[in-house]
Amino acid sequence: MELSNGFYSVHEFRLEAKWLIDPKHLFVGPKIGEGAHAKVYEGKYKNQNVAIKIIHKGETPEEIAKKEAQFAREVEMLSRVQHKNLAKFIGACKEPAMVIVTELLLGGTLRKYLVSLRPRCLDTRVAVGFALDIAQAMECLHSHGIIHRDLKPENLILTADQKTVKLVDFGLAREESLTEMMTAETGTYRWMAPELYSTVTLRHGEKKHYNHKVDAYSFAIVLWELLHNRLPFEGMSNLQAAYAAAFKNVRPSAENLPEDLALIITSCWKEDPNARPNFTQIVQMLQSSLSTHSPPEAITTPSHMFISKNAVFSPDSPGTSSLMAVHDDTGETPKALIENKSRGFLFCFNLCC
C-alpha cells in the first residue's frame, strides 16, 4: 500500500511465502558491487549461486522509513515481473537485514565490458543485439506499468558467455500513474531525460510530472554508447551534461551511424516525450535493423573476462544472520568472511562494479 508521502508502508507489506528467504540458508561471500543505496555480494542460497543485495538501512527515522519503503516497492515489483532479460528474482527477507536475492550473472557490467574493449567498438550487430535485449526488458516492465528510471550501463549485466544482457536493480523503479507526481530523485544525470530537470525539480523534495517515456530517452543514450563505445557527453561532468540536455537541447552526435540506427536514437531522445516511440515500437525497429546487418566476425574476449570460480561453501559457513551482527557497513568485507578465508570457501573474484 502506498502512503500519501509516496512511500510504501513496510509494516503493511507482505511477501508471499514462496519468495521468503530463510537467512539460515543464505551464505554471503565477497562483495561484487556497490551503489548509493546498497551493496551486492556473491553467495549461495541452498547450494545455488546467487547475487545478494543488502540495502543500507539509513541513520535517521526518516531515512530508515524511506529505505524500507524502497525495499518493499522493489521486492513487490521483482516478485511479479519475470522476463529472460531481467535478472531472475529468487527471494527476499527483511530480517536481520533488508536483503534481495537474484540469480548470479557472471559476465560483468556492460560498463566494464565496453571499457575492456576500448578503443575498439562492438560489432554493429552485437551492439544491436544487446540493445534488443535491453528494449525487450523495458517493454516487459512498461507492460506492467513500471518505470525503471535508472537505465544505464552499470545496471546492465552480461551472462557468463557475454552474449546476453539482463537488466538489474529496481531500486529507483516506480509504478506509473497518470495522476501521480513523482520525485526527481532518479538515476544518474548523464542518462536522465530532460523533463526530469528544471530549476525547481533539482531542489530536494520537489516533484514533477513525467511518464514512462523517460526510459526511452535513457535507452537512446545507452544505444549511442553501445555503437560508439565512448562516454556520452564527453568532456562534461554529469551535471553539465544534464544542463546541456535539459536547457540547450544538446545531444551526442548521431552522425556516421547507419541511417536506421540513427533514426531510432534520435526519435528516442526527442525533447517532447510524447514524440518518442514506446518500447514495443523500439523492439520492432531493432528487429528490423538486426536483419539488415551482417553476422559479426568472431570477437576475441578480453583477457580479463569476469569469471567466478564459485568455491564449494562449507556446511558450517556463517549465514546472513551471523554476518549481519558483525557487518560494520563501512564497505569492507564482513569480518566473519575475513576470519573464514583461511578455510578456502570464501574469496573475492574481482567482479566489483
What does this protein structure show overall?
There is one protein chain. This protein has 353 residues and is of the alpha+beta class. The protein folds into 2 domains: 17-104 and 308-343, 2-Layer Sandwich (Phosphorylase Kinase, domain 1); 110-290, Orthogonal Bundle (Transferase(Phosphotransferase), domain 1). It is 31% helix and 14% strand. It is built from 9 helices and 11 strands. Strands 1-2-3-5-4 form a 5-stranded antiparallel β-sheet, with helices on one face. It has a two-stranded antiparallel ribbon with strand order 6-9. Mean pLDDT is 77; it is low at 1-11, 175-187, 199-206 and 299-353.
**Element pattern in H and E:** EEEHEEHHEEEEEEHHHHHH
Structural class: alpha+beta
How does the overall form come out from the CA principal axes? globular
Please list the strands of the largest sheet in the order they lie side by side: 1-2-3-5-4
Q: What would CATH call the homologous superfamily of the largest domain?
A: Transferase(Phosphotransferase) domain 1
Query: Which percent band covers the strand fraction?
Result: 5-15%
Largest sheet: 5 strands, antiparallel
Give the N-terminus to C-terminus distance in angstroms: 33 Å
Briefly note the CATH topology name of the largest domain: Transferase(Phosphotransferase), domain 1
Q: How many structural domains are formed by the residues? A: 2
Instruction: Give the radius of gyration.
Output: 21 Å
CATH architecture of the largest domain: Orthogonal Bundle
How many helix segments? 9
Q: What percent of the residues sit in helical stretches (DSSP H or I)?
A: 25-40%
Low-confidence stretches: 1-11, 175-187, 199-206, 299-353
Number of strands: 11
Q: Residue-averaged pLDDT, rounded?
A: 77
